[in-house]
Write a structure and sequence with these properties.
This protein has 297 residues and is mainly alpha-helical. The protein is built from 13 helices and 3 strands, in the order H-H-H-H-H-H-H-E-E-E-H-H-H-H-H-H. The protein has helices spanning 2-16, 21-40, 51-63, 73-93, 119-127, 136-149, 153-157, 187-200, 218-231, 240-253, 258-265, 270-273, 275-291, and strands at 164-165, 170-174, 180-184. The chain has a 3-stranded antiparallel β-sheet with strand order 1-2-3, with no helix packed on it. The chain is globular.
């Protein structure tokens, strides 16, 4: 019975999230973990779950045990969200009178500021790419597009030549939810695209290609960044989203308004973009304290 309910719910998740395998797998993992807890507690039917049992489960997740890994507040909140959705589904399928997870508050999650690179670190990363090596131009272009245009890695690997206007120096990007946005770019990036197009030798419309002439994977981009991070002797291994964070932070640091950054990033809500103001203020305070003679005391 429980397996049938889980299978039905996962199918709905895949449908509602446009077949997202990652989302479905995360939901299934969270629900199976709760199923295992129910078995240990001798609870057979989903309708027998109450708020006291849920509180006990949260304690187990937080403290850890022989069968559970200790989870952070963020992971517990995600788990509760999955179970809340699952029981909402059960309300419909089993005609349950209530969803016991609705009254359970998720733990507060401390805001985690996005990681970003300083301008000199970005420059070091870009300059670490040997343009004379095989695929050097392509690799430099990939990094330059991530930072210069604030692209998500998924947007980078699906970027088409037909979406690039070299005359106006503007990219047409299809982002989350198939939303289209226009992103300007600078002359150095335009010249790099032109150089790459000369050696690219393919009729494929996707801009960045692997050695077999096929579109690059997101993992391949990550590998390039890992390699070049080491070549540049950076303090950390750079991931694609770090360059997007750097793009937004540097724009705000240099006077760009929040609404413009929101449009460039393709954020639906301004509140999502506002986290970068915290990054900029944090950077400003650290710089001030390090530089002002009275602040050093």
């Amino acid at each position: 019975m429980k397996e049938e309910l889980l299978e039905g719910f996962i199918q709905r998740v895949k449908f509602e999230h446009s077949g997202s395998l990652h989302t479905a797998q995360a939901y299934e993992r969270d629900i199976r973990r709760f199923y295992a807890f129910m078995d240990r507690e001798g609870i057979e039917k989903p309708e027998d779950v109450d708020r006291y049992l849920i509180q006990s489960y949260i304690s187990e997740l937080r403290l850890g045990s022989d069968t559970q890994t200790q989870l952070s507040s963020r992971s517990i909140a995600r788990t509760l969200s999955a179970l809340r959705s699952f029981y909402s589904y059960l309300n419909t399928i089993l005609d349950l009178p209530a969803n016991p997870f609705v009254a359970i508050k998720s733990p507060k999650i401390p805001k985690r500021l996005p990681e970003f690179l300083f301008v000199d670190e970005v420059n070091a990363l870009l300059e670490s790419v040997d343009l004379n090596k095989n695929n050097g131009l392509r690799n430099r272009l990939a990094i330059e597009l991530l930072y210069g245009c604030g692209l998500r890695v998924s947007e980078l690997v699906t970027l088409r030549i037909s979406d690039i206007d070299l005359t106006s120096m503007v990219l047409r990007v299809v982002g989350k939810g198939s939303k289209v946005r226009m992103i300007p770019f600078y002359a150095e990036l335009r010249d790099l695209i032109r150089e790459y197009m000369i050696v690219r030798n393919s009729r494929e419309d996707i801009l960045l290609l692997n050695a077999k002439g096929k579109p690059m994977s997101t993992r391949a981009i990550q590998y390039i960044l890992e390699e070049e991070s080491r070549n540049a002797n950076l303090h950390t291994i750079v991931h694609p989203h770090m360059l997007r964070h750097s793009f937004a932070t540097h724009l705000l640091d240099n006077g760009c308004d929040l609404r413009t950054v929101q449009e460039l990033l393709g954020h639906e809500n301004l509140s999502t973009t506002q986290i970068y103001t915290h990054v900029s203020v944090d950077h400003m305070m650290k710089t001030y304290r390090a530089a002002h003679p009275r602040a050093k005391k």
